[in-house]
Design goal:
Blueprint: H1 2-14, H2 21-29, H3 38-55, H4 59-69, H5 74-90, H6 94-106, H7 112-128, H8 132-148, H9 152-169, H10 174-190, H11 195-215, H12 223-238, H13 258-276, H14 279-299, H15 303-323, H16 326-341, H17 344-364, H18 368-381, H19 385-402, H20 406-415, H21 427-443, H22 447-463, H23 467-483, H24 487-503, H25 507-523, H26 527-553
Length: about 575
């Protein structure tokens, strides 16, 4: 009775809002001095380790309790081994986690639930280390085990997971991907069983499908899959978890809790909206996802929630820079730094992205030397081909703006040549590479060549609804026609560019378009239209100028000088803007 009373109190404190973690730990610790039976003691060490791991930063104490739980009873040791390996991974001690999981897998074959779960966990570690062959081998073992114990549900999950890894293995072999997509889709649709499990499998498959399309930069092609995914998560939300449980122990776990799935669907929706240029929609879904994450993190400190939060912030930061909210973007970059300070593995996985975001911010405030340093650091830290191509494309834009880096620029442009052996399969990045070539040709005065590149960009961006690239290409083409004296054709480009930029909204393209419309109307003798365009240009200039001053005055602005090691903990206050504002306008 005393044990149940203490356990009930501990659970009450753990699930309070906000959780009263210290009181929960006190209740669990009070069990141990009473010398409870061995199984009860082992379970208490597991519970203490779990609470300390999930709700505090006291890794040493969590590790101590979990290590005491591992040598004990089967219903405790496998959960303790799973949690302890997670803890080791959070501390970047993957080499310590792997043998622990291997041993647990060896002795768990009579416990189907834990055997399958531990196999997934070890496969995930190999995936993090880019050892995809070992991960696939493990999942093959898991698929066979699931078949032997009669678990069609877990076998279907493993097939889908294997498919995900095969996608990674088959980068740039897109002709082989689509048959696999079809096969896995059929496996999911043909599976009959518990409705929640069925929908869970569908969400898993559709997330893989949607992210595959987004990685390929196919924003328009992904829309039917994304719509299916959003409908699927709505269906899951209406189903009750208290349906009849599966009789097979190997079928008892989902790949993600339902609440986490909702956040993940919000996340891929934000990714799609950002790529397509629907930035207000991206903001709307980011707000929803962050609110949901805040609620979940009060009771669940699972590392995946922090990963979701960082990826959401990375995307919304890019949106802020486009919409002319640099100060907010900078504060959110600082927020990502703080999240990464709490987890070495999170920082390791996102360091390159963090420096890339700082590089983009530096471009927006015209700190080109700092932008170059940030992009160079990001290139050194990444092994991801799509991110590498994205960084190189933006670094090329820095060299174009500087105007005196021709040797370095030619070297970069050769590495992202969209006409020959483009390094990645992304439709979006290849279209961006054509735009960068067009921009460079424009600055070189090679207008016919620039028009060819920009028309290629327009053709590709229109094919996949890449609205920002379309707007940028239209306004640059309009500028070229204006320079060539073809005012009518220039107007035909600039007006739709302005309309599209207003819809996104893209502050820089609006500024550029309004300046061109002012000059075009002045040249054509349309005084009233010229005055209206000049007023618009003035308004955009003032908004950008105020935001520029605010951003450069923030203490976080000093992050632009950070290029080595973990994120700095504190920032020195700035006295004011550090760059010329004239070049911004």
């Amino acid at each position: 009775s005393w044990y149940l009373a203490l356990l009930g109190l501990a659970e009450h404190f753990r699930t309070s809002s906000p959780p009263k973690v210290r009181l929960c730990v006190h209740c669990l610790q009070a069990v141990l001095p009473r010398k409870p039976p061995a199984r009860m003691e082992a379970r208490t060490h597991l519970q203490l380790g779990s609470v300390l791991y999930h709700h505090t930063r006291n890794g040493d104490q969590a590790r101590g309790h979990l290590e005491k739980a591992i040598p004990q009873f089967e219903d405790v040791k496998f959960e303790a081994a799973s949690l302890l390996s997670e803890l080791y991974c959070q501390e970047n001690s993957v080499d310590t986690a792997k043998p622990l999981l291997r041993k647990a897998i060896q002795i768990s074959q009579q416990t189907p639930y834990w055997h399958c779960r531990l196999l997934f966990q070890l496969a995930q570690l190999h995936t993090l280390e880019k050892d995809l062959v070992s991960a696939c081998d493990l999942l093959g073992v898991g698929a066979e085990y699931a078949r032997v114990v009669g678990s069609e549900y877990t076998s279907a999950k493993i097939v889908n997971f294997t498919f995900k890894l095969q996608l990674l293995l088959m980068e740039r072999k897109l002709q082989e991907v689509h048959p696999l997509l079809t096969l896995c889709g059929q496996i999911v649709e043909n599976w009959q069983g518990n409705p929640i499990q069925k929908e869970s499998l569908r969400v898993f498959f559709l997330v893989l499908q949607v992210t595959h399309y987004l990685d390929a930069g196919q924003v328009k092609s992904v829309k039917p899959c994304l719509k299916q995914l959003q409908q699927c998560i709505q269906t899951i939300s209406t189903l009750h978890d208290d349906e009849i449980l599966p009789s097979n122990p190997a079928d008892l776990f989902h790949w993600l809790p339902k609440e986490h799935m909702c956040v993940l669907v919000y996340l891929v929706t934000v990714m799609h909206s950002m790529q397509a240029g629907y930035l207000e929609k991206a903001q709307k879904y980011t707000d929803k996802a962050l609110m949901q994450l805040e609620k979940l993190k009060m009771l669940d400190c699972s590392p995946i929630l922090s990963s979701f939060q960082v990826i959401l912030l990375e995307h919304i930061i890019m949106c802020r820079l486009v919409t002319g909210h640099k100060a907010t973007a900078l504060q959110e970059i600082s927020q990502v730094c703080q999240l990464c300070q709490q987890s070495p593995r999170l920082f390791s996985n996102h360091a390159a992205q963090l420096h890339t975001l700082l590089g983009l911010y530096c471009i927006s405030v015209n700190c080109m030397d700092n932008a170059e340093a940030q992009f160079t650091t990001a290139l050194r830290l990444t092994t991801h081909q799509e991110l590498w191509a994205f960084i190189v494309t933006n670094l090329a834009s820095v060299y174009i703006r500087e105007g005196n880096r021709h040797q370095e620029l030619y070297s970069l442009l050769e590495r992202i040549n969209p006409d020959h052996n483009f390094p990645v399969s992304s439709h979006c990045l290849r279209a961006a590479a054509f735009y960068i070539r067009g921009l460079f040709s424009f600055f070189q005065g090679r207008y016919n060549e620039a028009k060819r590149f920009l028309r290629e960009t327009l053709k590709m961006s229109n094919a996949e609804d890449l609205n920002r690239l379309t707007a940028c290409s239209l306004v640059l083409l309009g500028h070229i026609f204006y320079v060539l004296g073809n005012h009518r054709e220039s107007n035909n480009m600039v007006v739709p560019a302005m309309q599209l930029a207003s819809k996104i909204p893209d502050m820089s393209v609006q500024l550029w378009s309004s300046a061109l419309l002012r000059d075009l109307n002045k040249a054509c003798g349309n005084a009233m239209d010229a005055h209206e365009a000049a007023q618009m240009h003035q308004n955009f200039s003032q908004q950008l100028l105020q935001d520029h001053i605010e951003a450069c005055s923030l203490p976080e602005h000093n992050l632009i000088t950070w290029t080595d090691g973990p994120p700095p903990v504190q920032f020195q206050a700035q006295n004011g803007p550090t760059t010329s504002l004239a070049s911004l306008l």
